[in-house]
Amino acid sequence: MEGFLSLILEPINEVYLKFKGFFPNILAMLTIIIIGICVAWLVKTVFLKVFKAIKFDNWCDRMGITALMRKGDIWAKPAEVVVKVIFWLFVIVSIMVGFSALNHQAINSLVNQFFLYLPNAFSAVLILFIGYMVAGFLSRAALIAAVNGGLSYAKLIANAVRLMLAVLFFAMALEQLNVAPKIVVSAFTIIFGGIVMAIAISFGIAGIETAKRIIEGEKTKLENDKKGDVEHI
Amino acid sequence: MVGIPSYNNAKTIGHVVRAVDAGLAKYFPDKKAIIVNSDGGSKDGTSEVIKNTTIDHNALLIQHPLSMSHRITTPYHGIPGKGSAIRTVFQMAVDMGASVCAIVDSDLRSITPEWIELLLTPVLKEGKDFVAPLYSRHKFDGTITNSIVYPVTRAFYGKRIRQPIGGEFGFSGNMAEFYLKQDVWGTDVARFGIDIWMTTEAVANDFRVCQAFLGAKIHDAKDPGSDLSEMLVQVVSSLFDLTEKHSDKWKVVKGSIDVPTFGFRYHVGLEHVMVNVGRMLGIFRDGLDNLDKIWLEVIGSGDFGEVQTLGAVSDEKFRFPLKLWATIIYDYAIAYHKKKLPPQHLIKSLIPLYLAKTASFVMEVADMDQYGAEAEIEKLCLDIFSPECGTSHSFFFILEV
User: Fold this and answer.
1) What is the ipTM of this complex?
2) Least CB–CB distance from A148: residue in B274, B283, B294
């Protein structure tokens, strides 16, 4: 009977001992996460007040950041967006630090990988953000220049500029994230090469006469337009 | 002192130097005079032309002056541009203690010795500080001046200077010293916008200003690189920047007054100017199709609705309401101030609207003489002042500055 009891109790005891040894780690993890969330909330509140005091939203309006956010379909106030980002950054970091308190080899390696991957993720986000701004700026510049130049396909040119830059920056971001870098580079080369080839074929072979007519038409139009220019200054 | 800024103007600068030299000899024979050429590194022999240009005083029935005018050619330093060239002239005027100065463009074909008299005498004999030019121009010419620069300068600073960006100016030694002291020579003023800057600083700082009628202005064929978008960006951005700088000055301005005008006014036969109205309206309609989001953001839904209505009107019946144009200018000034878009994009997006306004003006004044066309410009100036447009917008702008 004793043998039977020991057969039942031994595993329970073992689990209990393991849990007893592991419990402080769980407690430490929960404590770190809770403290991290509290700190994140505190930092969020402080930043919100500081931003309000220095009129951060007004500054963003003046610098065109609000307009940029609206263009990206973000309708919250800039200060709210920044403090939300800061809050979640603190929460994610505290969760990761909390996990490392479990002192488990697999989890530790996962946490290490996460922190090692952070610079890449940050770079990718930065590339996408810069790409978004550059693509918006250049496509708008192309649109305005095409309209003022009297080109009737202005929107098409602007959209083409935006698309090309979006593809370029997206490929750069994926490469930064190490997501199948060889495939990304190949795909990018194929897409860009394809576009250039399509233009070359359409203008060079298939549409040689049309291209000639367009170019001659534009040339004549420009010459006629020049004849009719008043002195603006 | 007479300053001539130049850059590769060998073809025309000889005539300008002769006219300046003759003007100094004929009208100021008892004064010590100097001609300063501030050059941007010309490679076409501009400096040699200046040195070698001679003038036969006897042929021009001019008595030999007591003191011959000296000529100095000097390269200017700093940011490349007309502003830096003119700064060098200011510096030399101050260093030499010049009591009166003038600046004339080096590409002028219609300059005569009388221009020098007209630019310098108001300073010497009437005690003026700044002399702006007044030209006889074709009714279709100078459209940026007529539809933007003149009405806005007049509305904001209360002085009716008809050609604020003329290119030729006369000024006192004190004025040159004042200009030189301003901390703008590392900014865009050094590159471009010097003309509107000089005029605005003179009127905004209560210097004694006047204008002199010089006759027709004909200059060398314009630089193909200086296209409309760049010109508009340069002029309008300078105008708006100065409006922000002098907000405390124009807040108190109510109405406008004439400035003293010197010179004998006469009508000049001017070459016909061709205008492609169809192309201008085509660009406006393209703008309506493609720049709708930008316009809606800048001028608001009310004015944009009016612009949309205009888009549907046929070319023959197309007329751009003056009040709408005045409101649009104020809206763009506010958008510039609030940095709603990068300055280049913002001002370039104004071009289709400006062309529509210009096309409308051309059609309206097609059968009018010069005086009729001038009356139309006067109407626009009065509309910019009107309470339902100018005042309300100015007030809003003041609140935001």
Assistant:
1) 0.81
2) B283
